[in-house]
Design a protein that fits this description.
Layout lengths: L7 E8 L7 E7 L3 E5 L4 E3 L3 H10 L5 H4 L2 H8 L4 H8 L3 H7 L2 H11 L5 H10 L1 H6 L2 H22 L4
Antiparallel strand pairs: 1-2, 2-3, 3-4
Helix pairs in contact: 4-5
């Protein structure tokens, strides 16, 4: 008896870039993800991306990744730094969020009662992550050096005779 072929949801094929130039074919149906390449045989659901594609086809979407960035940042604000580091290792999107300036600014503002204007200016220059991991004494030194540079630069622009 002939096998009824399932409707394909996605089908892509082509040739890979040099130097390998293997031919490939990706077929996604409602029940299978099949990856074929120039080598004999088929790999069914053997790679994580193929498993993820199969889950999507079966309606098992990962809704956490679909949440807006603002909600992710709100959730991340309640995590310990060790958990943030673990979260960054889960996927590219969370890695990007965990290293974003928005996250580190939020973290600094959460750990400090008030953030002085000098620290905000320094954070714009050095980055909020660097400000977070620098102790307060070192920050004070950097702020005073920055003020001295700005004063000496202003003195050079407007010499007094």
């Amino acid at each position: 008896m002939a096998k009824v072929q399932e409707e394909s949801l996605l089908e892509i094929g082509g040739q890979g870039p040099a130097p390998i130039k293997d031919y490939y074919h990706l077929l996604i149906t409602s029940t299978q993800v099949i990856w074929r390449n120039a080598r004999p045989g088929e790999l069914k659901e053997s790679h994580s991306i193929l498993n993820y594609s199969l889950d999507l086809c079966q309606g098992q979407a990962d809704y956490l990744l679909r949440l807006p960035e603002s909600i992710h940042l709100k959730i991340m604000s309640h995590l310990d730094l060790e958990d943030v580091a673990r979260l960054a290792g889960t996927c590219c999107r969370f890695k990007q969020l965990c290293s974003s300036e928005e996250f580190w600014e939020q973290t600094v503002r959460m750990h400090w009662d008030t953030v002085p204007a000098e620290v905000e200016e320094l954070a714009e220059e050095l980055g909020w992550r660097n400000v977070f991991f620098t102790n307060k004494l070192q920050l004070q030194k950097q702020i005073s050096r920055r003020k001295q540079r700005n004063q000496s630069g202003a003195a050079r622009e407007y010499p007094t005779d």
